Structures are given as structure tokens and as C-alpha cells.
Amino acid sequence: MKHTFTPAPQMSWFALVFFLMAGFTLPNRAGQNSELKFEVQLIWGTNDKQSPNPKHKEVEPEIRKKLDELPLKWNSYFEVNRKQLEVSKGDKNKMPLSEKCAIEVKDVDGKRVEVTLFGKKGDAVLARTQPLPKGEILVLGGNAPDRTSWLVTLKRIK
């Protein structure tokens, strides 16, 4: 005589309820990886030792090191604004950095980002697509009046 195991009906219901409850209470790990997070800074480059705006502060050492690695001609860099930006997988997010500058970041494929800078008239002035791994810093910028510059740094933090 062969014996096959058949679970009791109440055991099946218990298992079903357990798995349903676990699905609602366990963290959604797939959703945690579907968002990119960035720190964005608007920076003013100049040869002046101080900014005329007392709210501006010198950039932090990590950003200064990155700027010093580039062929830039300015002696001083001041942080004008700093913001956090999040982009969902496959989506894009646009954020103003000042009255005259905005940035849009798009997740191209989970590895590469498309970054677009917008100028004072709302027109796209620069666009770039490249990989940006966690911890890396991308620097974009242009000329400003009086032989100064504006720069935007984008650091991926997640």
C-alpha cells in the first residue's frame, strides 16, 4: 500500500495566509534598487578670493579635488546651491538650481544617465550621456559674465 502525503486543508490555508502576509510586510527589495539618487551642486568659479554673496561658501574638499583635476583656470569655487535629486528607473526628473539654471537627469538603462542643463531662457544648453557609478562626480559648466564660470556637479550617491 502506497501512502501519499496530503496536507490537511487548514495547513494549506495557514501557509497561504502566511505567504500573503509576508508579501505585505517584507521590504520590496526590487523597488529599492529602482531609484537613483544624486547630490547636485551649482558652483560659481572665479579668481576672486571671496564671493560677493555672503551666503556662498567654498566648495567642500572632495569637489575641490575633482575641479583641480580638470583644466579649469579659476582659483576659487563657491557653492551657490546644493540639492538632492532622485530618479526612478527608466524615468527622468528636472529640478531648478537657480532662477537661471535647471538640471534634468534621466536614467537611460540603469547604468548610464542623460544629463541636460537648462539656461536662463529655459533652453537646453548642454546635454551629455554617460555611465555614472555610485560615488562618481560629473562636472558640467559654461561661461558667465565678468570672466567667471558656472559649474554643476552631479554626484551619484545611490
Characterization of the model:
Helices cover 18% and strands 46% of the residues. It is an alpha+beta fold. It has one domain. It has a 5-stranded antiparallel sheet with strand order 2-3-1-9-8, covered by helices on one side. It has a 4-stranded antiparallel sheet with strand order 4-5-6-7, with no helix packed on it. The longest helix has 17 residues. It is globular.
SSE topology:
Layout: H1 9-25, H2 29-32, E1 35-46, E2 57-58, H3 61-68, E3 76-88, E4 92-98, E5 101-107, E6 112-118, E7 124-131, E8 137-144, E9 148-156
Antiparallel strand pairs: 1-3, 1-9, 2-3, 4-5, 5-6, 6-7, 8-9
Count of separate structural domains? 1
Radius of gyration, in angstroms, nearest whole number: 24 Å
Poorly predicted runs of 5 or more residues = 5-9, 11-32
Strand composition percent = over 45%
Lateral strand order in the biggest sheet: 2-3-1-9-8
Number of helices: 3
For the terminal residues, how far apart are their CA atoms? Answer: 60 Å
Q: Work out the helicity level.
A: 10-25%
